[in-house]
Amino acid sequence: MAKKNFKKGRTMKELQLYIINNKNISIRKQCELLEVSRSNFYYEQIGENELNLKIMRLMDEEFLDHPKHGVLQMQDFLVALGFIMNVKRIRRLLRKMGIMAIYPKRNLSKLGHANYIRPYLIRGLKIERSNQLWKIDITYIPMAKGFMYLTAIIDVYSRYVVAWDVLQPGRKQ
């Protein structure tokens, strides 16, 4: 019973953090108790190879110029540059970068169609002091080897950066 409640709502990575190098309990036994396979515990992610990083950089630059281009247009762009690539590979890299083509989607702004419409609570609100309203900003930063996200929480009144963090997807934290 306790094992079920302990595991409930935790990801595999969170469970792996509980496993430590202990002389009293072997790693095999700890993995067994947490129901984590040892291959998952010892697995280390391999980053993208140099060619994929170069292609991701090119696709990122193309997307900034042409945000309406989808997978097939990106494939045409890469073929024009001399890279013959499978659509599945391009789609995987675009998903890894978090890039989606901008195109008209279903119109959910019509009243009565969306279940998640909420009132805009800060309309007409007068910001008169610090810590009354915070905003969050997530910025995509292309790097030499991949990309990163810069997240900042900003106090609207004082424009003070309350907190910030840099995240590189695919890298262990």
Which overall shape is indicated by the principal axes computed on the Cα atoms? extended
Topology, number of strands = 3
Regions with little confidence, pLDDT below 50 for 5+ residues: none
User: In angstroms, what is the radius of gyration?
Assistant: 23 Å
Task: Please report which band the strand proportion falls in: under 5%, 5-15%, 15-25%, 25-35%, 35-45% or over 45%.
Answer: 15-25%
Alpha-beta content class: alpha+beta
The largest beta-sheet arranges its strands as: 1-2-3
- Treating each run of at least 4 consecutive H or I residues as one helix, how many helices? 7
List SSEs in N-to-C order: HHHHHHHEEE
> What's the helical proportion of residues?
25-40%
Average predicted confidence as pLDDT: 84
Largest sheet: 3 strands, antiparallel
Report the span from N to C terminus.
31 Å
Describe this structure in words.
The structure is a single chain. With about 170 residues, this protein is α+β, with helices and mostly antiparallel strands. Among the domains are: about 10-40, no CATH class; about 50-95; about 135-165, no CATH class. It is built from seven helices and three strands, in the order H-H-H-H-H-H-H-E-E-E. It is extended, with a radius of gyration of 23 Å. The mean pLDDT is about 85.
Can you describe this structure in just a few lines?
This protein has 173 residues and is of the alpha+beta class. The protein is 36% helix and 16% strand.
